[in-house]
């Protein structure tokens, strides 16, 4: 009798735990173009009238974890240039792809509506920058986010790290240097195989940190360098190229930091950029301008100290809402244009594109918040003897393609929560090891891996295990 009773209690507990495990709703599907069947990348998937959401990956796939309090609400799928899809979460059918139909407004019709509206690309962008104090948050807030950082040479992947982030921003009106903070909360995955071919990092580290350093007196051979010294140099080089501070507090945060001295989208912007109105699209039922970014009379530079990041021309696209001139999306590239930069880019990277940036924003309570960052840049890691101007060795292995993706999934305004978060110690160091917290990641929204990312994780995890052995 006692055995049967314990068996009953055990079964009941298993049922309760199973119910709790399944109580968290997960929405998983693929977003595709209705006519071409091609996947739609970076489509927004979110719970209506909330800050909870995600985006589709390059394969069009997504996974959205829905908190219990929103299970009776509506999920929205939208993308620029397409009609919006909506359905009750309870009616969501994961077995069917989501197909979006094209939705484009008439350019002539929009331009004729009001004679007082700006009509040229330059005037529209300048108006959008004037409206930033109205369109960006003026109150302190937190955002929860997810980072995926990956690096590879032309042959194989070398590094992957995935982390949960918290960002604090006091307001657009305040300077980002002192009033914007990033904290790395948890690590989800981390595989690092870079110390075998990061000799340039070591050379640069010595050159910039050691007095009277002379390259000719050093033999750049991996076998002569202690692993601990090389790792220290790698971390130093990481922060120069890929530290989160570079993206959020520097010139590449084009909109948020447009009020800083030397901002790319700041004073005298038209000396470095020109903007041409292309057409008018629709996003979630709202019209928006699609404007082409082109070169102007001056070169663009990032002023990054010990790294030569000058002599570029900008190109890309900027998307601005027609009704309130809020900036929705920026696609931005810096292409080598000066003789010095073209020579450097050809010799070192065999590519003129040195920086590729995508920033999207989400609208919440009539304000625009960061939604997604994509940043890609080549980074030197192995060039052999640097005593001469021309690098030596295999060009295909002398640099990494580095990609950082940051997806913001939640916005927090509650002043008590914000103030409590500010009391802790903040660190934006994504390179420090952290233990894996399984419970934390169960209910955390992430950017779903693409097929390429899945292969990257498999290859790196397999080779990392062998390397450690």
Oligomer: single chain
Low-confidence spans: pLDDT under 50, at least 5 residues?
5-10, 12-22, 385-389
Helix fraction bin: 25-40%
**Helical element count?**
12
Q: Major beta sheet, specifics?
A: 10 strands, antiparallel
Mean pLDDT equals: 85
Tell me the Rg in angstroms.
24 Å
Give me the secondary-structure category: alpha+beta
Q: How would you write the strand order of the largest sheet?
A: 10-9-8-17-16-15-14-13-12-11
Return the string of H and E elements.
HEEEEEEEHHHEEHEHHHEEEEHEEEHHH
* Beta content: 25-35%
The total domain count is 2
The total count of strands amounts to 17
Q: How widely separated are the two ends?
A: 53 Å
Global shape: globular
List its traits:
469 residues, alpha+beta, Immunoglobulin-like, 2 domains, ten-stranded antiparallel sheet, four-stranded antiparallel sheet
Q: What is the topology?
A:
Layout: H1 2-23, E1 25-33, E2 44-47, E3 53-55, E4 61-66, E5 74-78, E6 85-88, E7 98-100, H2 107-112, H3 121-130, H4 132-135, E8 141-152, E9 157-169, H5 176-179, E10 180-192, H6 199-209, H7 227-242, H8 244-248, E11 273-283, E12 286-295, E13 312-321, E14 327-336, H9 339-348, E15 353-364, E16 367-380, E17 399-412, H10 415-422, H11 438-442, H12 451-468
Parallel strand pairs: 1-7
Antiparallel strand pairs: 1-4, 2-3, 2-5, 5-6, 8-9, 8-17, 9-10, 11-12, 12-13, 13-14, 14-15, 15-16, 16-17
